[in-house]
Every structure is written in structure tokens, then in C-alpha cells.
Design brief:
With about 450 residues, this protein is mainly α. It is built from 22 helices and two strands. The protein has three domains: about 60 residues, no CATH class; about 300 residues, Serine Threonine Protein Phosphatase 5, Tetratricopeptide repeat (Alpha Horseshoe), CATH 1.25.40; about 60 residues, no CATH class.
């Protein structure tokens, strides 16, 4: 830490406004850091040094500090407001030009090491989850249709090639997890596809299709980052994906991304923000213009966020609607490729988690077994491994340890070749559940614990 001589009166003022003790603020900062995959040693003495002696937070602590204060006060607190220097502007700005944001993403994620490090020091931001106004969506759609470009000619063949590549990369993610090939997705998006977006389109159908496909690729790179535990990066990619979908005037694509943002917020322990996003994903044309399979996906995530906020009856109603939507889906060329993965097994998986959060463990177990039974395990290895992890956890909660160990062993078998923060969490959860039993000499417990530890060591 580099110190200055004067106390930081601006920081002291905002802390007083928040009504937090130094110890409480330190705890909140550590929690934000943990969400972003970093363990920091901030304590009440650290906060005292920031305030009393004007010591500047090191590394990403400044960003974590403003995020903690923003959450407490329910408004955006900036680094400037608390007397700290602002770094290079990040990519969570709804009003920056879409193609400029995409170019900055390419520099940050693949080229510019200084900017990439600056963004690593940024925090997952609840304030940035607030979606823009209706006027913004209208303006973006109009901007897309009036954008004038003079680059290479872009036709239907180019659009189909981009769509094929998006489908291929999405299939790879489903099988191997977000820890594989994300850089390839970003490079393709920010070079080849960005070139198309700056080109001269054959017609408006091609323009809208290319912006939608770019949105799908930005979503995919964000989803892969989320799956690999890189939450600030995921949030930035999701933001750009929404902007691209807005310029395409593609409401279902926007809803698809907003649903992913809700999923991320829910997993990070922010149910109210998650519910707001999930409700937005099923609002208006995002739901009504979507294919039945996509409506089911949006609806089941909405159900999960309702369950997380204690709205159990509404959650059950949303689950029933999602079941009906999926039953109405018909596979074919008219379905967007981005929802190819959402089959009966996926619906059962998400339904199980909603029922678990409601407190219905028996119902959750039934749905997890349905998911395991109906999934094509090799094609969707990552999710299959996670589903088995959840199933074993519920069996362990009901003191069926041998059965849980057998289930977890199958989960670990499926994790071979998968790199995902969610599979790593499943393995860590196995070890935590088995911790009280390690000294009892139970062979199945020892075997699973050892295998889970080995997986974590190999993939962390």
C-alpha cells in the first residue's frame, strides 16, 4: 500500500452515511472480493488506515470497497467520491457505442495486458445489473437500422458461416466447460465477426442476423467466463451481448442474455437482483416472441429466482408454465441454435434446484434422477457431472452416505476432461460433506474424498 499524509475525509463521510463500522465494512469488502475469486486480508485495521492515514487500497480492494458501499447505500458510489483515483473506464457502460465496446473487449481480453489487469482488479457490480430504460432499447434499435458502414460486403453466406461457428463453439462449451477455448470465442468475435459488423450488409435481414449472432457469441464468451468462475469478465461480456441484441432489435436474444445475468446473480447470492433480471427476461416481447423451448428456459430460471426469494407459490406456478412451454417445443430449423441444450434433462435439473430451495428435498431428488436418466451424458458432460453432484448432496443430507458416494463417484467419472468452476465447486462440496466422516475408515468415503481432491488439484 502506498500512503499519503492526509486523512481521507471523503471516504470517512461515505462510511458514516452508510452507517457501517470499520469491521462491518471490512467484512463486506472481503465478501465482494470472494465473489470475484480473490481472498484478501482486509480487516478493521485496514479500513482505519484507509480513512485515518489516507492509505490507498492495493490491488482490486478499491473496486471491492466501492461495490460494498454501493450495495449498502443502494446507489452507485464511485472511486472519485471516496477520494481514490479512477482507473481506465471499464466496459459496463450501456451508453458507450456498441462497436467501440466490442473493440475495447478485444483489446482487453486478448491483446492489452495492462487493460486486462485493470479489469481483473474490477469487481462484479450489483449496480451495473440495473437495465436501461425503455427509451434506450428504442434508441438502440433505431441506431442499428440507421448505422452506416463502408467496409467489406457482408451477405447471407457470411451470416450462415458465423452462425455455424457459434453453434460449434457452444457445443464445445457444453461438453468441456468454460475453461476450454474461451479465448478462441473472443478472438473470433472481436476479429472476424467485428469485421462483419463494420461491413456493408446485403440487406437489413443480414444486418440484424449478424448483430444477433455477435450477441450470441458475446453471451457465449460471458457464459464460459461465468462457468469458469470469472465473474467480472462474464458481467462485461453479458453487457455487450445485450447491447448487440438491442441493435439487432432481437428481444428473445436479449432475454436469453438477461436470463444468464439472473442465473449468475442468483448463484452469487443476490436473489433480489436475480429476480429483477429474471422478471425482465420474461417481460413483453422477450418472452412472447421467443420459441417455446427458449420460453421454457427463461421461465425455469425465473422460477428459481422466485424460490430463492421465498415466493414459493409463484415459483411452482412458473415451473408448471415452463413444463408446458417445453412440451410445446418442436425441434427443427426454426429454433435458435443457442437453445439446443435445453431438453427435458435441463428442465428437470433447474426444477430440482428450485424445489431444493423451496425445501422439497424429495421432489428435488426425483427431478435430479429424471435429469440424470434423460440427459445425453457424453454430449453434455459438464452439466451431467454437476447434476450428479447435486443428487449426491441431497442423498448425503438424508444420511444415505453409501448411496451418495456412489453418485459422487459417477460425477467424478464424468468430470474427466471438463474444466469448469461449477464442477470444481461440486468436487469441493463433496469434500466438505464428507469431512466429518474422514476419520471413520469408510472405504467409499476415502475413495471419493481422494478423487475429489485430485480433481481439484489438477484443475485449479
Amino acid at each position: 500500500m502506498a500512503s499519503v499524509r492526509e486523512p481521507n475525509a471523503a471516504l470517512a463521510h461515505v462510511i458514516a452515511e452508510a452507517g457501517m463500522t470499520n469491521e462491518a465494512l471490512a467484512h463486506a469488502v472481503r465478501r465482494v472480493a470472494a465473489e470475484n475469486g480473490e481472498t484478501i486480508q482486509t480487516n478493521k485495521s485496514t479500513v482505519t488506515h484507509w480513512v485515518r492515514y489516507g492509505v490507498q487500497p492495493s490491488g482490486g480492494a478499491g473496486r471491492y470497497l466501492v461495490e460494498a458501499l454501493s450495495r449498502r447505500l443502494g446507489r452507485i458510489v464511485t472511486l472519485e467520491e471516496i477520494g481514490l483515483p479512477e482507473p481506465t473506464r471499464d466496459l459496463l457502460d450501456w451508453h458507450t457505442d456498441t462497436l467501440s465496446s466490442l473493440a475495447a473487449l478485444g483489446r482487453t481480453d486478448t491483446v492489452d495486458m495492462d487493460r486486462r489487469q485493470a479489469l481483473r482488479n474490477a469487481a462484479y457490480s450489483l449496480a451495473a445489473l440495473a437495465l436501461p430504460s425503455d427509451a434506450w432499447w428504442t434508441r438502440m434499435a433505431n441506431q442499428g437500422s440507421s448505422r452506416r458502414t463502408s467496409g467489406r460486403a457482408v451477405g447471407r453466406g457470411d451470416l450462415q458461416a458465423a452462425r455455424d461457428m457459434a453453434a460449434l463453439l457452444s457445443a464445445m462449451d457444453q461438453r468441456h466447460g468454460g475453461g476450454h477455448a474461451r479465448t478462441a470465442v473472443v478472438r473470433y468475435l472481436t476479429t472476424e465477426v467485428a469485421g462483419y459488423l463494420n461491413g456493408a450488409f446485403a440487406d437489413d435481414h443480414v444486418r440484424r442476423g449478424m448483430f444477433s449472432t455477435a450477441a450470441e457469441l458475446a453471451y457465449l464468451s460471458g457464459w464460459m467466463a461465468f462457468d469458469n468462475g470469472e465473474h467480472p469478465t462474464a458481467q462485461r461480456h453479458f453487457t455487450i451481448a445485450v447491447k448487440l441484441a438491442a441493435e439487432a432489435d432481437d428481444a428473445p436474444m436479449a432475454g436469453h442474455v438477461i436470463r444468464a445475468m439472473a442465473h449468475q446473480a442468483n448463484d452469487l447470492g443476490h436473489p433480489k437482483s436475480a429476480l429483477d433480471l429474471a422478471a425482465a427476461s420474461v417481460d413483453g416481447k422477450r418472452y412472447t416472441e421467443a420459441d417455446p423451448r427458449e420460453r421454457a428456459l427463461l421461465g425455469v430460471v425465473h422460477a428459481r429466482t422466485l424460490a430463492s426469494t421465498g415466493a414459493n407459490r409463484a415459483a411452482v406456478q412458473a415451473l408448471l408454465r415452463a413444463e408446458d412451454d417445453l412440451a410445446a417445443a418442436v425441434e427443427g430449423d426454426d429454433e435458435p441454435s443457442r437453445v439446443f441444450f435445453f431438453q427435458e434433462a435441463s428442465l428437470a435439473h433447474e426444477t430440482a434446484l428450485a424445489l431444493r430451495d423451496i425445501g422439497d428435498l424429495n421432489g428435488a431428488e426425483q427431478q435430479l434422477r429424471r435429469s440424470v436418466r434423460t440427459r445425453k451424458a457424453e454430449k453434455f458432460a459438464r452439466t451431467h457431472a454437476v447434476t450428479l453432484g447435486y443428487l449426491g448432496d441431497i442423498q448425503a443430507r438424508q444420511h444415505r452416505i453409501e448411496e451418495a458416494c456412489a453418485t459422487w463417484s459417477a460425477s467424478l467419472d464424468t468430470m474427466d476432461g471438463v474444466r469448469s468452476a461449477r464442477t470444481r465447486k461440486a468436487a469441493a462440496d463433496m469434500r466438505a460433506a464428507l469431512s466429518p466422516l474422514r476419520r471413520r475408515g469408510i472405504r467409499s468415503v476415502t475413495t471419493v474424498d481422494t478423487r475429489a481432491a485430485a480433481y481439484l488439484a489438477a484443475t485449479t
